[in-house]
Design brief:
The chain is an alpha/beta fold. It has two domains: about 30-65 and about 130-215, Rossmann fold (3-Layer(aba) Sandwich); about 70-120, no CATH class. About 35% of the residues lie in helices and about 15% in strands. The chain is built from eight helices and seven strands, in the order H-E-E-E-H-E-H-H-H-H-E-H-E-E-H. The chain has helices at about 5-10, 45-60, 65-75, 80-90, 105-120, 130-135, 150-160, 205-215; strands at about 10-15, 20, 35-40, 60-65, 140-145, 165-170, 195-200. The strands form two sheets. A five-stranded parallel β-sheet has the order 4-5-3-6-7. A two-stranded antiparallel ribbon has the order 1-2. The longest helix has 17 residues, at about 105-120. The radius of gyration is 18 Å and the shape is globular. The chain starts with a helix and ends with a helix.
Length: about 220
């Protein structure tokens, strides 16, 4: 299915009211030109897969704000990376209390580290600062776990607010639930950041093409 994204870019989707990006532009290694895409949606909506497709076809760097958070969690639990992510990436184990995660579920532990330990002590933009430092100024960057407005400000300082696209999207049945993240709001973010609202209930490649259309012509 991933390969189909190349075909999608050659078509004219009148239902969207736009001309799709020419296929040759996907070979442009400077497609994003240093811009940043922030995917903002609840868990289980396809954020990671969408980010990986964007990265594959544009050369953009795929990053997560919670990379630093994972490193802290591994230090606290004493788990090696392979063992840690084997538990964390298991959809069932991720939501269940685990003795290796201080009796919390992996998700609960990350929220505890973030909201109870790090942010009160070091500031609400604590995880945004290292994320901003890692942005690629040439090929661009796509974040697959945006959900805190305070983390957008360091990114804006690095690349400029006008070069940030927040993609808020939904998927049928998906909610933020117990997740500490939420949908970003324009009034809470730096002035100039662009927002677009989409749904991801269909083909993932068509969804990605809509995002890149906004980057190119929005």
């Amino acid at each position: 299915m991933i390969e189909n994204v190349l075909t999608v870019f050659t078509l004219n989707y009148n239902v969207w009211g736009i001309n799709m990006i020419p296929i040759e532009s996907i070979d442009d290694e400077n497609f994003l030109g240093g811009k940043v895409i922030l995917l903002n949606a609840p868990p289980n909506t396809g954020k990671d897969y969408a980010a990986s497709v964007i990265s594959q076809y544009t050369g953009a760097k795929h990053m997560e704000f919670k990379k630093t958070l994972h490193n802290i969690a591994m230090a606290i639990t004493g788990l090696e990376e392979e063992q840690y992510f084997k538990i964390y990436n298991d959809r069932d184990l991720k939501e269940m209390p685990h003795k290796l995660f201080l009796g919390k579920s992996p998700r609960e532990m990350l929220i505890w580290i973030s909201e109870t330990v790090c942010k009160p002590e070091f500031g609400q933009d604590y995880f945004g600062k290292p994320a901003a430092a890692g942005c690629d100024p040439f090929l661009g960057t796509v974040f697959s776990d945006s959900g805190f407005p305070e983390e957008v400000f360091p990114i804006a300082e690095k690349v400029g607010a006008k070069n940030i696209l927040v993609v808020r999207f939904t998927r049928n049945g998906a909610t933020f639930g117990n997740d500490s993240r939420d949908y970003l709001q324009p009034e809470d973010c730096p002035k100039g950041v662009k927002f677009v609202d989409l749904t991801n209930d269909g083909d993932i490649d068509e969804f990605v093409s809509k995002i890149l259309e906004e980057v190119k012509f929005g």
